[in-house]
Amino acid sequence: MSKDHFYHALKLESESCGGKLKCMNACPTNAIRYRKKKAVLINDLCIDCGECIEVCPDNAFLPVIDGMEDFKNSKYLIAIPSSVLYYQFGPDVTPPIIHKALKEIGFDQVFDISDFSEEIAYASVHHLNKHPELKPMISSFCPTVVRLIQVIYPNLVKLIEPINVPREILARILRERLPRELGLNKNDIGIIYLTPCPAMTVSIKQPAEKGVSQIEGAVTIKEIYNLILPLIMNYQKQGEINSKENTHFGKGWGVLGHISRDLGENRCLAVSGLKHIKKILDDIENSKLRDIDFIEALACAQGCLGGLFCVTNPYIAKHNSILMEKKSKPSLPINEDEVIRKYNEGLYLLESPILPRPTRSSQNDLALSVKRIKQKERILQKLPHKDCCLCGAPTCETFAEDCAYGEADLTDCIFFSE
Amino acid sequence: MPETKLFYTELNDIKTSLQADVIVGEDNLNKKIAGIYASDLMSDVLAYGKPGSCLLTGLNTIQAAISSYMAEFDAIVFIRGKNPGKDICKFAEEKGLVILRTKSDMYESCIKIAETDGNLHISKTRLSEGKLSDNLLTHEFFIDGSDFSSAGFVSTQIKSTLKGVGYDPELIRRIAISTYEAEMNVFMHARKAKVTLKASESEVRVIVDDEGKGIPDVEQAMQEGYSTSTDEQRAMGFGAGMGLPNIKKNTDKLKVSSDVGKGTLVDMRYSVK
Lengths: 418, 273
Prior knowledge:
The complex is a heterodimer. Chain A is 38% helix and 11% strand. By secondary structure, chain A is of the alpha/beta class. Chain A folds into 3 domains: 1-64, 2-Layer Sandwich (Alpha-Beta Plaits); 68-344, no CATH class; 360-418, 3-methyladenine DNA Glycosylase II, Chain A, domain 3 (Orthogonal Bundle), CATH 1.10.15.40. In chain A, strand 5, helix 3 (95-104) and strand 6 (109-110) form a beta-alpha-beta unit. Chain A starts with 9 loop residues before the first strand and ends with a helix. Chain B is elongated. In chain B, strands 2-7-6-5-4 form a 5-stranded mixed beta sheet, with helices on both faces. A 5-stranded antiparallel beta sheet of chain B has the order 8-9-10-12-11, covered by helices on one side. Residues 1-7 and 119-132 of chain B have low confidence and may be disordered.
């Protein structure tokens, strides 16, 4: 794998592509073109949001996923569920019940990231207070948002908090602690994330900062749901589910607003949906949001609840989360000094900084780039501005740019070849 | 920058030196051209061709005509006696392109043109003028100061153009911030404005020229905290008297000139390292 090759959580099966152009219009970074009537993915621009998977009528875009099968060789299997798994079943199905079911399908231990989330939120606030010049700090939680910034907002990468996500920090700790405690070889332990979306899978296979993930792989919430639903229904029949039961689990991030909640008194903006996020990022670039401390931006509607691999409607899941939170116990208090100590040791920090991704304009010298963009605008003026997509580019503007870079033929525009 | 004198040649001269036939555009032979571009690779024509040139090519397809039109060329010479098809002729007629045909091949044609009196200057002209204007990206935007909901639109447009060129992110950040501040000033203190972007490999320049009440004392207005905004504007998060100082902080060269009752001109320059 060359250093500029990007791993993606989706693959494109060209034979299945019926040339229906839907993916090209849905792609937020214009990473798709049509060549010879088939979709082609521009690797460097893809941010793994999964929009194409969702809209393709031919199922030509497929998520690259791990299945439970892939981990059967691990002697000791650990699950770290995304918090949104807890909201897929209903307000009475509490995290301990879900953990019980997960153990029944083959996991040896299940760890909830809620406690860690609060600890890391505290570390984030500490970092923010130490670096007030980096306001507003942008959450590193959503891999798609991080990649969006790397590709389209290169000047904002420095605002992404250099704090790792809870699942990675938890996994790092488990990887150190468990072999010792259980007397197992390091390689015998498999840590699996239960993921709501393809982007989280990518961030495990290839973290944005080019570090190494502590997690082996990710299984989709969809697969897990189908495996544990019959068990949960069985518990229900046997009266094992007690609606009065309360725990402090399941308050991790993933629901829009949860990160902001954990950041306490700071002024946080919780945004979801790439369209809205782009608007906010534009505002930050214009330095319009000077009073905001923190941006919680999650690519999917309602946050990870709207992830591609979630089963329950995100609004119903959100409702579940509200009901469950009402009856949940207060969290265990965090040891603030301990968190600061760990922060100073660098335990929460990303392995290396997040950098912008190279784009085709950044790879040229400026004089040539100015010429190209000028040429692009000349071409654009003469195009029909219908964004009909028939040339194979999503907009007339993208087509003009492709032509200026010599990557498309002007004759591909049907308004010229008639 | 020293002014470069431009030499031009008429299409008639090209026709004579190449002993070319006129296929389309008999009436336009007295058109002066700005240079010759010899190539069969249309992406090069688009990337490097200068408006007003004449294309010398062996590519006898509609693509040659479309690319010439897109690159704002005035004429095409087909070499080695290639006969352009009907589609090319029709397109050329519609778009006002002149089409010539010569029996010479590419190498011979280039030499013939170079030997013709005055034509050596063409290639020189192409290079020198290329430096003057072809590397300068110019854009004009207009702000309608009465519609507050469109505030920020122009600076966002400028930013995305500059990102397309691939300037340093930190430079773009400074340009975005100062342009946005200048744009907000228009919304608060003027009716409308023209914003001009000039971008080259060595400098980016944004000029905001508004029609408004003007600034009586520019020096005073440059002080942090000095503000003439209304409470309403402050309630919307602007007018804290940080506009001009913030612009100054983010530009390399700033010139503010104002005519009270007429308007203000803010000329912001940023050097590209």
